[in-house]
Amino acid sequence: MKSVKEVMSSNLVHCTADDTIVEAATKMKNNNIGVIPVCGSNQDILGMVTDRDLVIRGYANKKDGSSKVQEVMSDQLVSVSSDTTVQEASDLMAEHQIRRLPVVDSGKLVGIIALGDLALEDQSNRAAGHALEEISERPEVH
Fold this sequence. Notes:
It contains four helices and four strands; from the N terminus they run H-E-E-H-H-E-E-H. With 142 residues, it is α+β, with helices and mostly antiparallel strands. InterPro entries: CBS_dom, CBS_dom_sf, Diverse_CBS-Domain. This is CBS domain-containing protein.
């Protein structure tokens, strides 16, 4: 079974708790992402902020663009280590009804695994299985 480190995204954009919500939104827009980890100075993860957090906890509550990320971020996180299996990560996402998990080793953020990563992994396994099935079912021609 594959581990999270084999399918996670590790080239991450992050922000600090003191960044403004406009700065977080701009990073999301510029990088075409819907979530940004919120980290301390040592890459320790403090929380996550999603595009939904910005809208629901931020703008819908009349917070202006200069409000700090720490006012809208989620800080009760479920995380996994890079050695966690893909299946365990999938089970955690289902159990907690979340789409993304921060990957944390020794207290430091090393990546994010998302439902999309799992879907791609599952799709490639199915494709390999289909190919094997096709090879196994072909009649021998001599």
